Amino acid sequence: MIHVHVVEKGNADAYASVLEQYHRWRHLIYVEERGWSGLRKEDGLERDQFDNEDATHLIALLEGEVAGGSRLIPMSKPTLLSEVFPHLVERGAVPRDPDAIDWTRMFVVPAHRLGRRPRSVAGAMFCAVMEYCLAVGATRVGGIMETFWLPRWQEFGWTTRPLGLPQDVAGAMTLAAFMQVSEKALAGVRTATGWHESVLVWHRAPGLVRRREVA
Ligand code: COA
Question: Which distant-in-sequence residues (6+ apart) come within 8 Å of 207 by Cβ?
Fold first, then answer.
């Protein structure tokens, strides 16, 4: 059974070995497979300036092994979109509110890539992102993304708002866009991926209360 774990500042110590595996997979996938050589690190762990205390990592575990992951950061903090690719935002300003969540580094380890088959690791990750965003009271999630994602969001019934036209980034057509966060969006991705139950595991550090819980 796949579960997607929420790994954040408050519980990162308990996930030290999982986090190392996650960053190692990111290196294998982004540097070796996709050829994003600017991310190469001598220790074989892909981390950048945004892998800091503001980042929450959603990590899919299958029998204790990392099967996929993603990184989420509130747009009120520095993000890849705000600091590196703000020029992709042509319509209005770069979102800087905490209710908008920047979503980057979505990956599935090669052995678990199943495309659109039901109950895939990718499907669990998509459900987890929407479930997490609802849990923290976010209203939209997105940032910089390649255009190949857009038909997927459509299959989930997600409402996507592009903030500019696609541009060539490292040979891939890429745009800034945010998807609306809602119960309907969660229901849509669950139906499309076959993950009807919650996939999220969130061991909160004692004393940490999420915004939605106090609302
Ligand atoms: N460019 C264009 N299309 C891509 C793509 C890319 N870089 N990566 C995946 N796709 C397409 C596949 O062609 C396939 O399309 P199809 O169903 O119409 O044939 C579909 O996405 C599914 O991809 P697949 O890899 O089979 O399965 P998946 O849904 O389990 O995983 C990813 C999708 C993107 C998570 C996985 O391919 C991956 O981890 N890739 C490397 C990391 C990455 O590039 N992430 C995106 C940028 S952060």
Answer: none
Q: Is the CB of 34 under 6 A from ligand 1?
A: yes
What's the DSSP call for residue 36?
-
Q: Does the C-beta of 189 come closer than 6 Å to ligand 1?
A: no
Rounded distance from Cα 89 to ligand 1 centre (Å): 24
Other C-beta atoms lying within 10 Å of the C-beta of residue 215: 6
pLDDT at 109: 98
Contacts of residue 93, defined as CB under 8 A and 6 or more positions apart, other chains included, come to none
Half-sphere exposure (Cβ direction) of 7: Cα atoms closer than 13 Å: 25
Domains in the chain, start-ordered, CATH in brackets? 3-201 (3.40.630.30)
pLDDT for residue 213: 42
C-alpha–C-alpha distance, residues 177 and 67, integer Å:
26
Strands 65-74 and 100-108: antiparallel
Q: What is the pLDDT of residues 130-167, one digit of tens each?
A: 999 999 999 999 999 999 999 999 999 999 999 999 99
Separation of alpha carbons 163 and 23, rounded Å: 29
pLDDT reported for residue 1: 87
Please give the model's pTM, rounded to 2 decimal places: 0.96
Query: Quick one: which of 49, 72, 41 has its CA closest to 200?
Result: 72
- For 125, the 3-state DSSP assignment is helix
Q: Which residues of 125-161 are buried (b: 16+ CB within 10 A; e: fewer)?
A: bbbbbbbbbbbbebbbbbbbbeeebbebbeebebbbe
Structure tokens at 43: 């220790």
The verdict on the CB of residue 120 being under 6 Å from ligand 1 is yes
